[in-house]
Amino acid sequence: MTRTVMRKLCSRLLPVAALLISTAANAQEIDGGDTAWILTATALVLFMTIPGLSLFYAGLVRSKNVLSVLMQCFTLTCLMSLVWFAIGYTLAFGSDGVEQGRWIGDLGNMFFASIGMDSVNGTIPATLFAIFQMTFAIITPALIVGAFAERMRFSAMLLFSTLWMVLVYAPVCHWVWGGGWLGELGLQDFAGGTVVHITAAAAALVAAIIIGPRKGFGSVAMPPHNLTLTVTGAGMLWVGWFGFNAGSAVAANGSAAMAMLVTHLSASAGALSWMAMEWIRHGKPSVLGIVTGMVAGLGTITPASGSVGPAAAVVIGLTAGVVCYFATNFLRNTLRIDDSLDVFPVHGVGGILGTLLAGIFCSTQLGIFSGNGFSDGIDSIGGQLAVQATGVVATLVYTVVVTSVLLKLVGLVVGLRVDGDQETQGLDLVLHDERGYDL
Prior knowledge:
Layout: H1 2-29, H2 32-60, H3 66-93, E1 120-121, E2 124-125, H4 126-148, H5 154-177, H6 181-185, H7 193-211, H8 227-246, H9 254-282, H10 287-301, H11 310-334, H12 343-361, H13 381-413, H14 420-425, H15 427-432
Antiparallel strand pairs: 1-2
C-alpha cells in the first residue's frame, strides 16, 4: 500500500518538478542586464522612425507636402509592425531552435506562433528579440519614402511597402542574420549596412527612376520648407542610432559599448567633413549639409560598428562625408535623377562604403587599427573584402530586380503617381484633406 501511494505521489510530482527545473533553466538563461539594455535599444530604434525620421523628412519637403510625409512614416510604423508579426519575422528568422535554409526562413513562426512569454533567444526573451528586429523592419521601408516624396499615391505606397517587406527585406535579413548564405559566408554586417541601408537605398533609386522626377525638377527651386524640423529630427536620429548599432550586440557588454563609441565618432566626423566640403566649394557651411553628413556618417559606420575601433571609425566617418557629398551632387546634377531626399547617395553609397570598409578595418594586418575591433581572427584583407563585395552585389542586384517588378505591378493595380494638378496642389490636401500649417 505504501509503495503504491509513493508511486502515485511521485507520478504527480515529477511533472511539477520538471516544470520547475525548466523554469529555473530559462531564468538562468535570461540575463537581466542584457534584457534591460535591449528593451531600451528597442525603444531607441522606434524613436528613430517616429518622431526622428518623420521630422527629418518632413522639414525637407515643401510645406504643401509636410503632412503627407509624416502620415507615410506613421502609417508604415503601424503597418510594418503587423506584417512583421504575421509573416515577416518567420521568413527572416524562422522557428526558434530549428535549423534554417540558406535562402528563407520556415513558416513555423507566423503570428509569433512559437514565441511565448517564457521563450528565450540567447540571453534575452524571444519576445524582446522579435520586437527589436521589428523596429528594423519598420525603419527600412520608411527610409524609401524619401525617394518618392511629394508625388506617390498613398495607396500605392502602402501596397508597395507591404510586398517589399515580404519579398525583399525579409529574405535579405535571413541571408545575413537569420542563418542564411551570406551569414555562413562570413559577411560582416553588424547592424544593417546590407539589410537596411543598401536594400532601402537601392529600392529608393529604382522608385525615383520609375516614378520620375517631381514636376519642375531642375527648373524650379525646391528648398526645404522648415530646417528647424529637420535638425530636430536629425538629433533624434543620432540618439536613436545608439540603439540601432549598440543594440545589435544583443547584450550589455563591451561590444555594445564599442559600437556606441564608434557610432558617435563616425557621425561626428561625417558631419564635419560634409560641412567642410560645402564650406570649401560654396564659401559657407550649411545646416542642411552638417545634418546630412551626420546621417552619412551614421549609415556608413552601421555595418562596421561591431568590428572596428575608434581610429577606424573616424576614418570611416570622414570618408563618408566626402564620398556621400559628391554622390549626392552627381546623382542630382549629372544623372538628373530626382531622389527627393537623397536616400541613395546618403544611405546607399554610405551602406556600400561601410560594408566594404568593414572588410578592411576589421583585419589584424592594419597596424594602428589592430586590436581595435572584435574580429581579430580575420587575417586576410583580400578574403574578407571579397566576402563583403559579394554581400553588396547580391543585395543590390536582388533588391533592384524585385523592387522593379513590384513597382510595375503596383502601378498596374492602383497607379503609382498622383496627376500633375494634384502634385501642384500638394499631397496634404489632395490625399488627406488637411493642411500642415493653417496660420
